[in-house]
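Slide 14.
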Amino acid sequence: MLQLIQQAILLIGTAAGAVTDAKTGFIYDWITFPMIALGIVLALIQQQWFNLGAGAVVFGALFLAYKFGKLGGGDVKALTGIALLNPTNEINFFISLIFFAAMGAIVFYSVYYTIKYARIGINFGENKKGIMSAIMFAIIIVVYFGALIQMGYMETKNTVMILIPLAFGLVFVALQEGIKKNFFEAKIALGKLEEDEVIAQGRNNKKIDKLLKGKQLLGEKEIAILKKAGIRSIYVLRKLPPFGPFILFGAVIAVLFPQTLLFLFI
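Slide 15: predicted structure.
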């Protein structure tokens, strides 16, 4: 019974987060804090020690990603809540959820932004570094999965199922500089900056980079430093694609088929 309650809270929370993230770009604390609190309570009642440990590990690891501007704070708290609400109290559920959320986001956004970029004209020159990185990653991926097949850890048909979304991801890696420049980067006056803005790397002048000392997020302290130095505006990343809807997608797949990912391996 308590596991069904965990599933219900998890799905309701991720659904609410998907809606608010899609509409506003935020997964709010009024969604994530109850997920975390109820997750802790239900895990303690059922003695789900794996969930409690996983929640701590997930929060710690993703908090670092947040500090480096790679993940939103709402995503961190939502995924922490999910780890605590894991109805199976074992790792396959959580890995399946993350895997399908990530694969869904990779395929959708690779197609969406590549089409948008193509419509205004792809500049291959500004994406030269990304293209080289994509080629390098492609070689590593092919060698890695080829080795898995040769050693009997995966079947060819299952490998293809994984390689297809990864191929979409490589397209995004190749074109990411142009995509960021045209769709995510914006020059914003310091007075109009929002909480925890992510700095657009490589777009600001050396003076700003020196003042920020390599920091990825802009807080009150960093903004005060910039104002004191006479800086009026700065390039940040805006309108970043929401991950919340894909967390919901992964959660639904994991709840219905918690062992799905295992079938990809022999």
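Speaker note: The mean pLDDT is 87.
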